[in-house]
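Trying the structure run again after the queue cleared.
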Amino acid sequence: MKRRKFIKNTVLTSTGVGFLAGLYGWQVEPFWLEFVNVQMPIQHLPENLIGKTVMQISDMHVGNRFDYQYIIDSFKKAQLLNPDYVLYTGDYVSYENETQLEQLKEVMKFVVKGNLGTAGILGNHDYGKDWAAQEVADKITTILQTAGVPILSNEQKEMNGLNIIGLDDYWGMNFNPNKIMSAYDSKKANIVLCHNPDVCDLNVWNNYKGWILAGHTHGGQVKPPFLKPPLLPVKNKKYSAGKIDLNDGRTLYINRALGNLHQIRFNVRPEITIFTLIKL
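Done. Tokens:
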């Protein structure tokens, strides 16, 4: 009888713990935003930019898969930090139909912009079904630029002493990194925006030395304690989340995403990153 009671209690306890963990991963962590602070040393940084902040917002995924009021609330919190630069690294929507364009317009009424500059790039989800709908990408670009977020497609934009190089999405229709990486000025204070971190392994960088800001992975969204995320949408499984020294003068930072591809997170909180500029 004692053994039977022990087994029953164990099963009940395990069931209860599993239920609470599932409830947490569904209703708590997907909306438990973390502001992550990182120092960003940059070559050729102008003296007047030392100590300025760069905010990275990635993978909003506005749509029907979770309540996007959370994105609006997060934007309001981010605005209170008064960032000097704001950089967006793609996947603004989880596109199903034209409804997501209207939802994005609603969210972008609360857009976070930098005092010294704002820019962004597109991600694969911004190209619609099968990442192959140019008209969807064009409409999303128009919404973003109307809201004050210039979108860089294999282009660069200098903003008050900081030069932002934006690569179009690796899985999208307009990926052409050589167009811009063959033309950048290594004597400027450069930052590269690149949605998919797998691009870091391609032979397109033209001896670039500096920071690369990416997203795409969401850090896996679910990560067992002390283990690697079981699912990552990248070829190079080292590219999960956070700061990664590529050991060639490049530093990759992968943002864990503000939004959720699906409303489930465990041990991978959503993130907005705040970089503080320092001179290298």
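Confidence is low (pLDDT under 50) at residues 6-15. Worth checking whether this holds up in the mutant runs.
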